[in-house]
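Re: the pair you flagged

First of the two:
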Amino acid sequence: MSTANQQLAIVTGASSGVGLHATRALIDKGWRVVMACRDLEKAQAAAQSLDLPVGAFEIAHLDLGSLGSVRAFHAGFRASGRGLDALVCNAATYLPQLKAPMRSPEGYEISVATNYLGHFLLANLMLEDLQKSPAPRLVTLGTVTANSEEFGGKVPIPAPADLGDFMGFLDGFKAPIAMIDGKPFKPGKAYKDSKLCCMMMSRELHTRFHASTGIVFSTLYPGCVADTPLFRNAPVLFQRIFPWFQKNITKGYVSQPLSGVRVAEVVADPDFAQSGVHWSWGNRQQAGRAAFAQNLSAKATDAQRSRQLWELSADLVGV
């Protein structure tokens, strides 16, 4: 297939884990992929490790923790004049052992800045590019730990995802504020909160833009990818025990290659053309089980709160 006829996807955080294997799976479907990554050398080594075919991918710098980097990435893509068929908001950082918050260049807590605010800005900037495609999709990675409709979202370690009354965002979200709800810093909860925001963002994108643009907005939870590099900053004992626990006790374990295949399906396959859906394969994995539309919690589906989150986020990122 010629490059001119290939569908093009941007995958954030494609240098490891789910994003890397989603890149592999999309290429296997005949797509070309822009691997949008913070560490270009790491991304190149990752591409070589999977023997990704030369010409089927390219690597571009994107640090989602920096709003300036997001704008520069988009400006570079827009200047190329190319069409865009899918944006996959995958990149995430998880820093559960932090004692004090790290900050983005804009002064925002780094987990929320990287996992949510950077993707919020990127999605807004890319809408015009996407809507030129005949069948555009914007796919966002969610997580069971941010969905209290499921057991994994009820686990109170360190606390369930909860954005409160958005007091942290209302007060500017800069030091000493580090949590969206304005309460004391909990790094593990900051990750959960950021992913809840991502799922709310996708639903609000659907509400605001699906009818007028034709873009399909969806989220997915591919299953528990317990050995993903996302957990590289977790305690070493956790990194050893967690995959075993998911494989043998909960039966929720999903390999990195399978997670990538599932992301690629949501991006490319006709069965996933419904907008406003959160796709799941269930918490307990069953061979051959088809994906289904998973209910999200009241926290994620409250339309008024989603609008408020959108407006506050737009102020923080300057759109």
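Second of the two:
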Amino acid sequence: MASVLMDIQQLEKKYSLGGGFPQNRPRIVRAVDGVDLQIFEGETLGLVGESGCGKSTLAKLLMRLEEPDAGSAYFKDQNIFTLSAEALKAYRRRVQMIFQDPYSSLNPRKTAMSIIAEPLTVHRMGNRQQNREKAVQLMIKVGLSREQSKRYPHEFSGGQRQRIGIARALALQPALVIADEPVSALDASIQAQILNLLKDLKKDFGLTYLFISHDLNVIRHVSDRIAVMYLGRIVELADKNDLYETPLHPYTRMLLMAMPSCAPGKKKRDMMIRGEARDAGDPGCSFKNRCVYKIAVCENTQPRLIRYQGRGWCACHRAGDN
């Protein structure tokens, strides 16, 4: 069995949204609410959920772009939230990120070669000529050419800009790459090219991915295991085949029911959707207001993420009943 690369324990991040009048109380949003998750070396762990569920906040926490309110995350037995400045710099060599927007994540005043070489310069990995040559080689590796190395971001298409972002993420030879919706801003035909490129690079560089998306078709294509997130919590975690064939959590079923399919004659799962998401601070299950299977215990007791008959992990009081 592969060793654990990242071990996330009871991670929390809250934001306070204040009102415009004195009588309005601040509203607390639990963007990440007690997340427990392990990422194994060499795997692609898919993280899926609707917009606003906390996926990107979790990514920012793991990159140390945000600081948690509670919890820990161990990267090879080191808690990343207690690292010294020097140790944090070393950590960021080992963990890199591919951002969602392939244009705003690139410096418009720098050439493609300079953008890719910048991490090497910051971390003092070689002299200027060596770093430039490595940047060019990475451009070729991701499907660009040497002749394009002196072009600026606005001279590339969206898919090409994302290839530059991927090359930059690989420059420091990271162990873990966090891909936050890396294809959501691209056309469908380009999405397939980028996804296949990421799969090839994983083999060539021995990478581990945390792949974040709201698109279940994309997640299924790239992932080994899938974690489903709802209102800041992991509600289901399973091997991708188990999750798609026998989902345990009602929210997972709801997501799968909403998936578009081109398969003729394919029957959709029949599940009624109702209600709105619960308010922050309400007791009980986070999905109770939208769940057709809820029982009395769901009103006041938040279900724990527990293993279900060796099939996977689920946070539901009625896991597998329906």
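The chain has nine helices and twelve strands.

-B.
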